[in-house]
Write a structure and sequence with these properties.
Helix 4 runs antiparallel to helix 5. By secondary structure, the protein is mostly helical. The chain has five helices and no strands. The protein has two domains: about 70 residues; about 80 residues, no CATH class.
Amino acid sequence: MSLSKDRIGGILILLFCLIYAWQSQNIKLLPFQLNSAFHARTVPEVLAVLGVGLSLLVIVFPGTGEGVKWRELNWPLGLSFLVLMSAYGLAVRPAGFLLSTSLFLMVGFAMLGERNIARLLLVAVPLVVAFWALMNYGLSVFIDPLPSFLRS
């Protein structure tokens, strides 16, 4: 069994899903939920099982036999995305969800090669506002939309 791009991706997804399944057991259940069929852990557990199953399929039956060419990978771009994601994680509370997530998406798209400012704005901002509205009004999950200095 050679390590192809598909198999490496499958192994990484398998590791993520196993850690996700393990961490989903830390979700606290209320006493009345202990014997119910559907509770706070149900969806994470189902997602973890599906992820493990699909990743095992990818590992066992990879799509290509192409090996990994480590020198051809764009390491600076990958590391730049790790820095960008870390900066986003640090900025989302003080800068608010709308501003920090919009900037995160616009900078990420620009790093991938999009240079049209209008397109960056027209894709990122409505997407972020729609997601925030869905979470806030549709699912009743409050996310601070504004920077901390603008909150009352």
